[in-house]
Amino acid sequence: MNSSPELNKNIILQYDTTFSPLNLEIISKIFSDGSISTGKYQKLLKEKLQKLTGCKYIFLTNSGTTGLHLALMSLGISTRDEVITPSYLCEQVLNSISFTGGKPIFVDINSDNYSINLEEIKKSINNKTKAIIVPYLYGDTFSISELKELNIPIIEDVCHCTGCSVNKKQVGSLGEIGITSFGEKKFLDGGFGGAVFTNNADLSKKIEVLLSHSNPRKYTKNYDYHIPNIIAAIIYEKSFSLKNEIKNRKKIAKYYINELKNPKISLRYANVLDSFFYRFMIDIPSTKTSFIKKMRSKGIVCGVGINHPLHELVGDYRKKLPNTEFAVNYSVALPIRPNLTENELNRIVIAVNESV
Ligand SMILES: Cc1ncc(COP(=O)(O)O)c(C=O)c1O
């Protein structure tokens, strides 16, 4: 990569990881009053997340992975239990399942979006199935109602659409329990952290116990997954930009949907209602490596999406998940930073047409 500042100025990145000057003021105050670890922002962020998710019980965690670990433990997942998850997903989800000793059962996504396939789930259910992890991958929307009819606890993973609603219902509140991540480059990017949330009082009680320290007379295994006040402050402040960012993501997506008319490119989005566009994916006709390289040579950084589906990561090459395999090979993410300019968007569309 050329490190000339002049050239780098022209590079269109996938993500914007900068923070507003307001964050600096807040952080400086936290440094001076000594509330780095514990302070008012943890409470403020929890209250904000109650509003964003429609859930009564909120627990802040230091990542999405640990949030998911708590969610799985609260549902009692342990060895001998099976957890259904899409294979087209990041390794961290596999980590959370592995921490519990449960067995991941990998299923395919749909051919027309990146959401978990209902029929594949149905085929995978047996009496060991104890939970289904349901991500809104890349912010893609779908109706969860048929999944709920299966009567298996649902863990909604809203890492790619924190604070969004589908059919006027807030994602994260539609299953038994929900999780999100505030890690670097996430939909709500605080650089670090996560949360687990539910409206179920029993699950909430269990999580509370898992996070609590032992009492002086009795040791109990507990999980120090807490988020420090200084990070809660960053996430809290960032959360106020969400609404505007979602609006801008949709505006950018509309531009791409209207302008990318190249017959070599397939779009899975018919209109802006199909996703919250954490990423804007396109399917290209040949494998993604050379396309990404060509785009990079024009100063545009594309995302690879998922490169290693989870079933292959655990060495199960016999399993056939055609939609997953197709997406791994041919789906690429175009930049969709909410602050992209019209000029940059124009450059991206020209570059896509030249590179495909
Ligand atoms: C869909 C999804 N779920 C869970 C996670 C795990 O979150 P974290 O990286 O904060 O552990 C991620 C992020 O990598 C993710 O993209």
Supply the key terms:
356 residues; alpha/beta; seven-stranded mixed beta sheet; two-stranded antiparallel ribbon; 14 helices
Polypeptide structure, described:
The protein is α/β, with parallel strands linked by helices and 356 residues long. 40% of the residues lie in helices and 13% in strands. A hairpin with a 2-residue loop joins β6 (165-166) and β7. α2 (21-33) packs antiparallel against α9. The longest helix has 18 residues, at 242-259. It starts with a helix and ends with a helix. The site of pyridoxal-5'-phosphate (PLP) has 13 residues, from α4 and α5.
Briefly, what is this?
By secondary structure, the protein is α/β, with parallel strands linked by helices. It is built from 14 helices and 11 strands. The chain has a 7-stranded mixed sheet with strand order 1-9-8-5-4-2-3, sandwiched between helices. A two-stranded antiparallel ribbon has the order 6-7.
| Shape verdict | globular
Structural class: alpha/beta
Ends: how far apart? 22 Å
Major pleated sheet: 7 strands, mixed
Oligomeric state of this protein: single chain
Name the hetero compounds present.
pyridoxal-5'-phosphate
Order of helices and strands: HHHEHEHEHEHEEEEEHHHEHHHEH
Show unreliable segments.
1-7
Mean pLDDT: 94
Strand content: 5-15%
Radius of gyration from CA coordinates: 21 Å
- Estimate the helix proportion, in percent: 25-40%
Instruction: Give a count of the beta strands, DSSP E runs of length 2 or more.
Output: 11
Counting H and I runs of at least 4 residues, what is the number of helices?
A: 14
